[in-house]
Every structure is written in C-alpha cells, then in structure tokens.
Amino acid sequence: MIKRLSFLLVLIFMFWALARAQVTGKISGVVTNAETGEPLVGAQVMITSKWVDDREVKLSYIMGAVADRSGRFFIINVPPGFYTVKVQMMGFETVVYKKFQVSVNRTAELNVKMKPTVIKGKTIVVKAERIEIKKDQTSSIRNVSSKTIEKLPVESVDQVVSMQPGVVVGHFRGGRSGEVLYLLDGIQVNESFGYGKALDVNPDVVEEVEVITGTFNAEYGRAMSGVVNVVTKEGGNSFRGMLSLNAGNYVTTHDNIFIGLKPLEIRAKDLYFSLSGPLRRNRLFFFVNGQLRSNLGHLNGIYRFNVDDYSDFHGDSTEWYSEHTGTGEYVPMDWSENTRIFGKISWKAGSRTKISLISNYGRSRYQYYDHSFKYNPYGRATDHSNSQMLALLLNQSLSSSMFHEFKVSWMRTYFGSYVYKDPTDKRYVHDGYMRSFGCGFYTGGQQKHHVERVTKDFSVKYDLTKQLNTNHCFKTGFLYTSHYLYNSSKTVRNKYEGSDIANYFYYDSTKGEVVFPYYEPVILPDSTLYSDIYTKRPFEFSWYIQDKMEFEEMVINAGVRFDYFDPNTVYPSQWRNPANQLYFEDPEKMSKFIKADPKYQLSPRIGISYRLGRAALLHFSYGHFFQMPPLYSVYQNHDFVVPPYDFATVMGNPQIRAQKTVQYEIGLWQELTANMNLEVVVFYRDIYDLLSTKVITTFNQIRYGLYTNKDYGNARGLELKYDFEYGKLLVSASYTFMYTRGNADSPTFSFDRAGNNMDPVNKFIPMSWDQRHTVNIAVSYSSQNAGSTVRVRYDSGTPYTWTPIPENPLSSINILPNNDYMPYRVNVDLNAYYNFIRGNRFCVGVKLLIYNLLDRLNEVWVYGTTGRAYTVIARENEIENHKSNFNDYWDRIKNPAMFSAPRFVKLGIEVKFY
C-alpha cells in the first residue's frame, strides 16, 4: 500500500506545473462573419468589467483571448459572476455583451457574429442570453447567484439549498443525513465526527452557490448524495459597505398553543455588516462580513420548579407533596445566539497570480425544546458550538490555457452540551430531585450528560486545469487531510453512589424543603460505562483525474477518483470478548489488539450531454460514490468495555468499510420561449454498505451492538424545474417526486428493535424522510428601488408509524415502521424591500421578511395512534392515573413542538454605500 501511495504522489507532483481550481468557470465560443459565416481569425475577446449590485465595475486587469484559425477561443479561470464581454476586430462592428453570466465549474458559451462596417468605432450592445450556460450540464447542477439570493426570503445558505429540486426535508435524493459534501471556496468544511457542516457563512458573503443533487465529477469525494459549493465574494477597487439592523416577533393567533408570546415583544434581533475595498489599488483588496443574532424562539416553558425542588405524587391527593419555588414566569426554551465573522484578503501579485487569505469564525449557543422540562426549564443542558477556519489560497495562470491552485487550510470545531462546563460544579443537584411520576413532567433535577468534542483538520489541496485544445480540458488534483479528534462523553455521577447513604434524604423544616445531604458530583474513569474519552488521529488522501471533452453537439465528463483512509487505531481480534473482561485458557477466546486496515477504493464517473438543436439539451450520467462513515462509528466506546446487561452499548468498529452509492440519471433541458425553460430529470440510486449495527453476543451471553456495513437502500424519482424571466418579473418553480426505500432509516434501527423485543424488518420500508411530493414556487418582482418575492412550499408529508392502542404488548410486534404518512404542509414566505433614499454612491432602505405568512399550523410530528398532533386516543384509566396539583393529563399530550413555527415578522433598515 505504501508503494502505491508513493507512486501516486510522484505522479501528482509530475503535474506540479499544471493545476485546477473548483471556484472558477470558463468562457468559450466561436467568432464568425455574420454575412459569410467565415471564422474571424485574430478577433479579440475581452472581459472588461464585472456587474455588482447592478453597477458596472471595471476590472483591475483584463482577461481575454484571441480567436484561432477556426475562429474559436476560450478564457479559463474566470471567477463566477456577471461580466461585460467585448469582442472587436478591425473592419467589423464591436460587439459588447452586458451581464454575461459565468458560473463555477461551468463553460459559458459565447458565439459571436460580427458585421463588417466602414464606420470606425461603431459598437453593438447585446443582452447576454441565459441559454448558453446550459451546454455542458452533464448532471443535475443548479447555480444560484448572489443576485438571486438577495431576492429570496432566506437568511442562510441552507435555506437556499432547500429550495432546489431533489432536496427533500434536508436529504439529497433520498440519502441519509451526513451524505453531502460542503465546500467553501473549494475547501471541505464538513465536521468529521458526525459529518455535518462544520461552519457557515452569511448569504451576503456568497458570490454563488453550486448545488449538485445528482451525480458529480471525480474531483468531488467524501460524499454519496450531493455537493454544496459556496464561492465567496472579494473586495475591489471601490469601497463598499452595508449595515443592516433587524428586529422580529412571532405574530400568531394560536396563542393557546404557543404560550407566552406577546404582540409587541421583540423576540429576535440581529445586526449584519460588511465592508470591502482596496488596501492597495489594483493589487490588494479586503472583504469583511459579520453577523450578531439572537432569537428567543417561539416555544416557552413556565418557571414553576427549581432544579432542587422535590415533588411526590404517589398515593391519593392527601399524601401528595410538592415544592415549587419558581417565579411562574415564561422562559424561552428554543432560543439561540449566533456570532459569525468572515474575512478575506486578496492580493493580485501580477496579471496571472492571485493569493487569498480566508478567515471564518462562528460561535453559537442554543437550546431545543423539551416538553418534559416545560415546568423546570433551567434543568436542561445548553449546546455550544465554535468553529474557526484559516485558509491560504494560491491561484496562478501559467499560460492562457493552463492554471493551478494550491490551498492550505486549518479548521477547528468545538461542540459542548452540558448544564455547567465544569462537570464537578457544585450547582449540580442529586438525581433524587428528578421526578416525573404522576404529572408527566420533571418537577426538579437536571440533565446530567456532559459532552465536549474538539476536531482539528489540516488539509493540503492541489488542483490543476490544462485546456489541451478547444475540445479537451484536462483536470487532476489531490487532497491530503490529517484529522485530530478529542471526544469526551461523560455522565455526571454521585460520589456516594453505591453506598447505603447515597439516596438518604430528610425534610428540613426550617427551609421547608427535602434535602439529599450526600451528593457530590464526580466523573468516573474512562474504563467505566459512564465515560468515553479518547483522542484519535486518522488521516486520508485522495486523487482524481478527469477530462472534459467539449464538441459542437456533445460534452463528455469522464474521470476516476482514488480515496484512501487510515483510522490509525486498533481493534480487538475477538468481538465476543473485546476487552478481555472474561478469561479463557483458549487463546482464540481472548482478544489481541490489531492495527486496523486502511480503506481505499476507486470511483469511476461519467457524464454526457447532447445538444438537440439550439434550445434543448439531453444529459446522462453514471457514477460510483464512496464515503467513509462518520468517525463516531469508528471510535465510539473505544476501550471496548461491554456492560453487564443486554443492549446497553453500541461499539465503534475500526474495520468498518466505506459506504457506496451507484447512481444513474437522465435529464432534458428545454428552452420553451426566449425567456422560459424547463428541466426534467429522472434518477435511480442503489445505496450499499450503509452504516448499520449488528448484535454481538459475548461468551457470557450479553448482547451489545457493533457498527458495521449491512444496510441497503434505494431511491428513485423525478425532478422538474421551471424558470421564467420577463423584465423585472422572475418566476421559478420546482417539483420533486420521489420514492425512498430501505431496510433501516438509521444506523441503530435494527439494534433498537432487537433491544425492544421487536421482530426484525424483513422487507423494504419507506424511510422516515420519504416525502412523495415537494413543490417550491418563487415569484419575484424587483426594480432598483422596490421589490418583493413570495415563496410557496408544499410538502406532501413524511412517514410515521401508525400503531394500534396497546391493549396487548403483542399488538405492535409485527407492525412495520413508517407505515403511514403525516398530513401535508404548506408554507408561504415573503421578502420585500423599499429604498426610500438612493444616491449615486449610497442608498437607505427598509426590508420586510415574513415566514409562514398565513400562520398555518403545520404538523412536523404526530402521535402513532391518531396520525395527528395534539390528538390521542386516551383511555379512562390513563386519565385517572394522572396525578398532579398543577396540570391535567392533556398537558402531556399538547406538545407545541409538534407544530412548525407560527407567523414570524421581521422588519429592518439597511444602509449601503458603494
């Protein structure tokens, strides 16, 4: 294996003089005589300026090309955006294309027909056609520009992504969560422990978002379902800035569900700012963007109990005892606080070299609603997350047909979940206070889990592009990433646990409260079941090569990718006695600790697009896509200790293999009229070796779980996308029809059923995100001084498990999961703006953002016996068994988190200068 890696490294460095980036596009085409059709050899094609906020800004340097003997030209390494392209030749009218769009990783085709003229300096201005950017689309790729994002009722990149066809309730084409690759300026920003997105940026930072929901080229790895590539803005020769202040509140008629919301209260406030400009004109530029946000959320609790209050509702009402020393005020229970700062310095060290330094910082604190803590809101843990990224990017054009890009990045993420950061904090209280008998809610006590996790990723990335000729664009590159993972998952325990006095308590008549005197919070060693603390340093390497073959009527993307992952740890040779807790004379029954094998695979990819005349495009693509499972499935319970009782732990498996998707798709893009087009895509996916958990039985007949690869799923569907643009009116609509099936919709699905004495699922079932119909419609009207966008979303509902009334425990054993569907959901959002002051260099305006404009109650989860929120079939004995002096039985049932957020209105003022 080492020899193979050495060979690959040598091969890659042979191409050090060549390179490829993932954050630029290309312009190509042909220049001909409009009267004779002959190629115009030597015609000059130049990109002279860029359009920013509908203003034309001259470039500090001109990119260009000269038409060859066949009249063909290409300009590579063009950042995404809208440009002015000028085509000129002696004896012909100069042609200028305004707002010509270039998208990341795409070829924008520009075919120019020039008329002979005897009038010197005559210029023809042409509005660029949008159709030309579709020619090289060999898979389902959607490019969303900053211009479009500004019009949408969105406040995050995730909201932009969710509007794309194929993205259903956060899942890409039926895949599980965590199967998407996130890139920031071509740098991977996935968090390796759970493989979610590690950091985010504000929409104001984004120049363009590339969303790939289907097959993708060999340059992309570590993903099975999709790719989100965010390209950021950079500064220019003029100073530009923005300051936005916003305040919002939930305005709803459903105050019987969303308690404690006040009509004139400010529950959300945020501040956005950005500033960009030159540090040295034409050479050194900066861009800074920041956000401060806080939101109290729409779900409140009632502060009736303190964490050290004690209640006992056993017996009849004459025997009840309850302490409730809270104030009775409403307390936010789904709040969040966020801070983000993004900075970018760009240095143009010549006409062909650009060096960028990127820094991104994010910090969040938040809590999710927990209905069982409704009356004890301060007993819940708070989640904390921090992320920092620093990256250095070098982009250099070595010639008019060749450029390379070298990227070095460092990223650190922190996640914590706890009541107090110090797990031995004296403010932790005895578990005896945490009681919910009778009333159904905790009348004291605290959550005792304590999680802290740090990941650090250091990456070196090198890419190349070589335009061999007008028909072949060669690409290759490699990525090396070293991971650092520190995980500390603990449970706060009592120092006196196990002793006779551990649960002793008495009533203090002077204070009027029950006291547990023998309690001191401690953390037990890593060798126990209550702590899982480890540090691991895996690493990975990947390399790809591909060719983009562009012909008059056809484009072919073909490539192959190699991925290598080393978990850099050991595993036990005998899983039935993994930690040698049992002793046997037979050495086969005793574990030896063996170094885990590295994992590697080859992934072929191919995509073909065929042009059907001038206004239609047919594409087909196929590929194998691999992704290692998240690191928790490799290292969890790293000391391999098995508890003394069944189904008490799930153990990581360093020998786990990569998950695999084989995907096919075929699509048709058609221009219906000059301003209207329609795209139709059908796809099918086979998903193999999905992360699962199998049951292992030890030699002393204790059963536990071990992560492995045995689950399977498949997805098939149809996607439609419609776009219409006429003047200031823009209409965009998408529809996704999809079936998602598999034998398990989570890694521990089968293990949990076995632990609950339920039969295994022996047939394919719908996944919990199997939403049959998803519709997104956005209608926008915008001018320089005013505009609005209305977005309508329809979701047909996701599965839930219908279960009969449990008269007998056997009644639910053979019920298949996800056997029915929840009600449909409809959401209408609005975004509007009005600039009441506008000058040549500045403007002041107001913004209005409304989520859930119709204040509709959309059910996000339901009860299994009825299929509806807030509704159960309650038996008389269940109601009678409710014992409480402060609530009734129905208080348990009426969980407001079963509904999505009510109407939310945010009003802001924005000041811009440019």
Salient structural properties:
single chain; 914 residues; mainly beta; 22-stranded antiparallel β-barrel; five-stranded mixed sheet; 49% strand; disordered N terminus
Q: If you average the pLDDT, what whole number results?
A: 91
Count of separate DSSP helical elements = 7
The major pleated sheet works out as: 22 strands, antiparallel, barrel
Q: How many DSSP-defined strands? A: 53
CA-atom Rg in angstroms: 30 Å
Helix content: under 10%
Content-based structural category: mainly beta
Rounded to the nearest angstrom, the distance between the terminal CA atoms is 56 Å
The proportion of residues in beta strands is over 45%
Secondary structure: elements and pairs:
Layout (H helix, E strand, L loop, with lengths): L1 H12 L11 E9 L10 E9 L2 E12 L5 E7 L2 E8 L5 E9 L4 E3 L2 E3 L8 E5 L13 E5 H6 L5 H6 L4 E2 L2 E2 L7 E5 L2 E2 L17 E7 L13 E7 L7 E11 L17 E13 L3 E12 L4 E3 L8 E2 L8 E2 L7 E3 L3 E13 L4 E14 L15 E18 L2 E17 L30 E19 L4 E20 L1 E2 L11 E3 L4 E3 L5 E2 L8 E6 L2 E12 L3 E13 L3 E3 L20 E3 L3 E13 L4 E12 L4 H4 L14 E2 L7 E15 L2 E22 L5 E24 L2 E14 L6 H7 L9 E2 L6 E10 L3 E10 L3 E2 L19 E2 L3 E14 L3 E10 L24 H5 L9 H4 L10 E10 L1
Parallel strand pairs: 1-7, 1-8, 6-9, 13-16, 41-44
Antiparallel strand pairs: 1-4, 2-3, 2-5, 5-6, 10-15, 11-12, 13-14, 15-16, 17-18, 17-53, 18-19, 19-24, 20-23, 21-22, 24-25, 25-26, 26-27, 27-28, 28-29, 29-34, 29-35, 30-33, 31-32, 35-36, 36-39, 37-38, 39-40, 40-42, 42-43, 43-44, 44-45, 45-46, 45-47, 47-48, 48-51, 49-50, 51-52, 52-53
